[in-house]
Amino acid sequence: MSAIPTDRSPDSTLAFLRTGYRFIGERCDRFGTDIFQTRLLLEPTICLRGRPAAELFYDNDRFVRRGALPMRAQRTLTGVGGVQGLDDATHRARKAMLMSIMTPAAIRHLGQLVEDEWHARIPVWAGAGPVVLYAEVGRILTRAVCAWAGVPLADSEVARRTDELHAMIDAPAALGPRHWRGLLARRRAERWADELIRRVRAGDLPAPEGAALRVIAEHRDEHGALLPRRIAAVDLLNILRPTVAVDRFVVFAALALHDHPQWRDRVRDDAGAAERFVQEVRRYYPFFPVAAARVRRSFEWQGYAFPLGRRVLLDLYATNHHPRLWPEPERFRPDRFAGGPADPFSLIPQGGGDHLAGHRCAGEWLTIELMKRAVATLTGAMSYQVPPQDLALDLGRMPTLPPSGLLIDTVRRTR
Ligand code: HEM
Hints:
By secondary structure, this protein is α+β, with helices and mostly antiparallel strands. Helix content is 49%, strand content 11%. It is built from 15 helices and ten strands. It has helices spanning 13-19, 23-31, 51-57, 71-78, 88-100, 104-126, 133-149, 158-170, 177-202, 212-218, 229-259, 263-269, 271-284, 316-320, 364-380, and strands at residues 35-40, 43-48, 63-64, 131-132, 290-295, 299-301, 304-306, 311-315, 382-385, 407-413. Helix 10 (212-218) runs antiparallel to helix 11 (229-259) and helix 12 (263-269) crosses helix 15. The longest helix has 31 residues, at 229-259. The termini are far apart. Bound molecules: protoporphyrin IX containing FE. Protoporphyrin IX containing FE binds at residues 83-84, 95, 98, 238-239, 242-243, 245-246, 249, 287-288, 291, 316, 349-351, 359-363, 366-367.
């Protein structure tokens, strides 16, 4: 058996937070492997990238999720007790419930709600100066996903709830105020979601059949019991929060249209080109850096020992940029997807493997639909200018965005 190449620093947590998306990839390059070990949050941690590593990581016989995600991420991003930390039969039952919300008709319905909200905003932007696309799309998505999920939301609440959902996503890898904002936002949002679940169960709040709020409030676990209200609240936020997070991919899609204007006509006129463009945006731009698991029982892989309980990180970003999987990985080239559907262990911005059996993102199809609608709207329903601004992405910040949130101006409705 070989020793896993090891980064000898006493603890690399600060280096990880500073280096950001490049932390694992740079060290893999240095060691000439797709695996190394380091200490993160004072614990020995195995870091992996690449297709064989992704296939290993999504093998439920080898890994569990219980206790895998650091508490700082659970207390801000995911919440405690949600689907992300479950294993085996409990995970399968909860995941099946969440996936039952994602029917093709329901996905189209949310797509239509987003498009309607967006079209209603175009005349407002047309009369304004520069607008921040990230903030505007965030509010559009908050309104639409709440309406879709059966969650009542007054106009006066939209900005506050959007800010809370944004703060949770921005917090897990941050130190200081950005992290504290995420903690506070989660506490507030969980109280809100808990009260919604209580009202549905009490019969005070009618939610349409099949809508996320109703499905989650009425879900019974594998023993026939309703979920504790706090847990149901966490999983309701597991639908609302990441749907609003699609605004980051929408900003990246707008950035890609700005940097590669030759794609504007193609994505507007050709559904296949739009699909390839959206896939390349998901591959190329950085969002979730890693996924985390723990070794279920000791095993050996490629001559390396994985001891029981060891935390393992799979680098999603470095796998999406792996030179053996993606020729010229640092070039934005949608036509690399012309050969057909992407491999489930190579394109992994939202996790890999199977949606129902594993932890792959429950909202991946929804994300793709919303991105296609956004790209169609940006190229077909409005014209706009991108004024001079700093559009550089800081890869040391997780998650990252252009510092301006992408300003657009001179907006006009075109149909
Ligand atoms: C903005 C785009 C999104 C990105 C980049 C993203 C990314 C991810 C990633 C990396 C995971 C973890 C995979 C793993 O642990 O192996 C995940 C899980 C999850 N995502 Fe997403 N996601 C997005 C949108 C959504 C949407 C729109 C929804 C729901 C409406 C959603 C719901 C979930 C849920 C419930 C899980 C947990 C699945 C499980 O543990 O079984 N996500 N997502």
